[in-house]
Specification:
This protein is an alpha/beta fold. It is built from 14 helices and 23 strands. The strands form three sheets. Strands 1, 2, 11, 12, 13, 14, 15, 16 and 17 form a nine-stranded mixed beta sheet that branches. An eight-stranded mixed beta sheet has the order 4-3-10-6-7-8-9-5. Strands 18, 19, 20, 21, 22 and 23 form a six-stranded antiparallel beta sheet that branches.
Length: 636
């Protein structure tokens, strides 16, 4: 162990010693003495312990002080853990843009007039805030939370209108099935809609061997009645549905998307109330199952009042441009890090309600990115190189909610993605130990085979190389766009996603060393020949996940296409459980054995409860068919 790291560990031990010494401070051990005549003469002798912090930074590279300054501000409790949309997140953004501006960068967004790229998101079915809900059928008022609930895709409104039964509200089902005639007009009507899709006598979908097919997508069904003029929707579960849910939606199903009309979910008894002058909802369902009934006006009116506040979270990426020159000026290198964290535990932690400062994750990567930004602006100002690529410095938001900031950027990029030579990602680089660094993505460019060892050899680092370009951080979204990536990571620590991830548990000198190495790589990317992307990363697994699950499935879930039920797969990693079992991109995972998969969070819960060797029957929608895929789970 080098002297620098001995000093680093000594500093951490001093912090611990001071911590455990606090209880003794209240003991009567102090004393008083006469002071000097002039306060300027008060100069006690210092001990090595008194000077340990100064000695630590004197022994370190000067960049360590700069890294520590950034880290201390970004992980300060004043910022509240940098949850997207909070005042603390905005303050962190102001600090980042203040630095970008003083470095002389140009704003990256809105035609170079704004540092920010805003976007909204919900967290895997986060329900809206319902300020007021009222439903009456005829002259009978129903009880909220017992007889009905407002669904998460509801808009606000106050309507009284006649009701029309619309069956399953499926426009174009299998074998020519449709819930509508060509001239169906629902203008000014409240649609009474069955959930899911036509069932057989056993309550099983007629169009899927297990669970439901793509025609059950509730967003499509809702849109079908809205397009025909409906002013409200009352959804009801089919009474004899074997694989469907029972009771009302407890989370109000923000997964269903968003509309601008009132939408409620009612019980079977309340549906029968709406049909009191007619048959039961079970009879109406049977007619819809066979296609004998399309839409049918009912002899009943309803009144719905909804006043809701959407639970969308507001986020904003931050970006600055360092313009290149010469023939390479229209090509790009992206250097990215996410600056958000989990705040008071809004996601991804076992300690909800407690402040998570997020020093290593990812104030450290943001601090390193700020260092690199400054170094690059100074380099471009003095270099005589006539041809340099432009550099886009990105600070992503909402990474902790599912890589959402980087997903939004590649969906709405400000540069041609094909012109990006490489993307460097810095996430959790604050705990360098014994000069060991993990580099992922080393198999994503043909040239990396020789370039990576060359650059590492000029440093003091030992680099652990992982060829794969995917993992639980923002580089994944760039790799999916066929862009070479390099991901810098100093390892998982016991403090990960806990309130203990604080500044004093990090290694600032090590963070500066990582920043310098990433800068050295980036300098090669801005003026060397263009890299050749390759997805042939065999020879090593993708980076070991930092999620503490004993097994890894190896699928990439969609964070933009959220279904009523199930998880859409956008990709499958090589040499994983999913790949071995034959899971494919565009498959939809519907169930884990007999447990319905309602979103990515549910999948992670089940993975954490599993051990290597477990065999899982996944119900998978592939095309229009539902199939069973047996997956043998493996360790990460």
């Amino acid at each position: 162990m080098t002297g620098k790291y001995k000093l680093y560990w000594m500093l951490r031990l001093i912090f611990i010693a001071l911590l455990f010494s606090f209880p003794t401070l209240a003991q009567p051990t102090g004393e008083v003495t006469d002071g000097p005549f002039s306060i300027r003469q008060f100069r006690p002798e210092s001990t090595p312990k008194d000077d340990a912090l100064e000695a630590y930074f004197n022994e370190s590279d000067p960049l360590a002080v700069e890294f520590f300054e950034h880290l201390s501000l970004l992980a300060n409790p004043w910022l509240g853990g940098r949850q997207p949309g909070t005042e603390g997140s905005k303050l962190a953004g102001q600090y980042i843009t203040w630095n970008l501006e003083r470095f002389g960068l140009t704003p990256a967004f809105n035609k170079n007039t704004s540092w920010y790229q805003p976007f909204d998101f919900d967290l895997d079915g986060t329900p809206p805030i319902v300020h007021h809900a009222f439903l009456a059928i005829g002259d009978m008022a129903l009880v909220n939370e017992r007889d009905f609930v407002v669904l998460g895709n509801s808009g606000s409104g106050n309507i009284t209108a006649p009701m029309t039964f619309v069956g399953y509200a499926i426009e174009d089902g299998d074998d020519g099935y449709s819930s509508f005639e060509d001239n169906t007009d629902l203008t000014g009507q409240i649609a009474l809609m069955l959930r899911y899709e036509p069932l057989d006598d056993n309550g099983v979908s007629k169009w899927a061997s297990r669970r439901f097919g793509p025609h059950s997508n509730i967003k499509d069904k809702m849109q079908a009645v809205i397009d025909r003029g409906a002013v409200g929707v009352m959804l009801v579960n089919p009474p004899n549905c074997r694989d469907g849910r029972r009771g009302l939606e407890t989370n109000r199903s923000a997964r269903f998307g968003a509309t601008n009309i009132p939408i409620v979910h009612i019980t079977e008894d309340m549906a029968n109330l709406a049909l009191e002058d007619s048959k039961s909802i079970a009879w109406f369902q049977q007619q819809a199952d066979t296609g004998d009934v399309t839409t049918m006006p009912l002899n009943q009116s309803a009144s719905i009042t909804t006043e809701i506040e959407t639970a969308n979270l507001h986020a904003q990426n931050i970006g600055g441009v360092l313009k290149g020159r010469g023939k390479l000026a229209n090509e790009w290198v992206v250097i990215g890090s996410h600056y958000d964290h989990v705040g008071y535990g809004y996601t991804g932690t076992s300690s909800p309600g407690e402040l998570h400062r997020g020093a290593d994750d990812n104030a450290s990567g943001t601090s390193a990115n700020l260092l690199i930004t400054r170094l690059f602006t100074e380099y471009y100002a003095i270099t005589e190189d006539k041809s340099l690529r432009s550099v886009l410095f990105m600070y992503f938001d909402a990474e902790e909610a599912g890589l959402l900031g980087s997903a939004h950027f590649v969906k709405e990029p400000t540069v041609d993605l094909k012109s990006i030579n490489a993307m460097i990602n810095l996430d959790m680089v604050g705990n360098l130990s014994d000069n060991n660094i993990s580099l992922s993505g080393t198999g994503t460019a043909v040239e990396f085979k020789t370039l990576v060892p060359e650059v590492v050899a000029t440093s003091s680092m030992t680099a652990s190389l992982t060829p794969g370009g995917t993992g639980p951080s923002d580089h994944t979204n760039f790799y999916k766009e066929d862009i070479p990536v390099l991901f810098f990571f100093t390892g998982l620590t016991p403090e990960y996603h806990t309130p203990q991830d604080e500044v004093f548990t990090t290694n600032p000198a090590g963070g500066a060393i990582v920043a310098q190495l990433a800068y050295d790589f980036a300098k090669r990317f801005v003026n060397d020949e263009k890299l050749t992307f390759t997805s042939n990363t065999k020879g090593g697994a993708n980076r070991t996940s930092r999620m503490p699950a004993p097994v890894r499935l190896g699928v990439h879930p969609s964070y933009s296409e959220i279904l009523e039920t199930g998880i859409l797969i956008t990709g499958v990693s090589e040499d994983t459980s999913a790949a071995d079992a034959g899971l494919l991109a565009d498959d939809v995972l519907l169930a884990w054995n007999d447990t319905e998969l309602t979103g990515g969070r549910k999948l992670m819960e089940l993975l954490k409860e599993s051990v290597p060797g477990d065999i899982i029957d996944f119900t998978v929608r592939r095309g229009k068919a539902n199939i069973i895929v047996k997956v043998t789970l493996k360790a990460p």
